[in-house]
Amino acid sequence: MSQDNMIKLECTECRRVNYNSHKNKKIIKERLEMKKHCKHCDKHTMHKETK
Length: 51
What we know:
With about 50 residues, the protein is mostly beta strands. It has a single domain, classed as CATH 2.20.28.120. About 0% of the residues lie in helices and about 50% in strands. It contains no helices and 4 strands. The protein has a 4-stranded antiparallel β-sheet, with no helix packed on it. A hairpin with a 4-residue loop joins strand 3 and strand 4 (about 45-50). The chain is elongated, with a radius of gyration of 11 Å.
């Protein structure tokens, strides 16, 4: 897997980067948003893709 497809997911509440993932940037143009568990907030929050 190339580094071009790697993305970072940041918690919308505490603004910490918790997850790394990958996506096909040719197919999916918009930023990824998903609900994940934040270990710092200790609850499920929305995580958004960072730059």
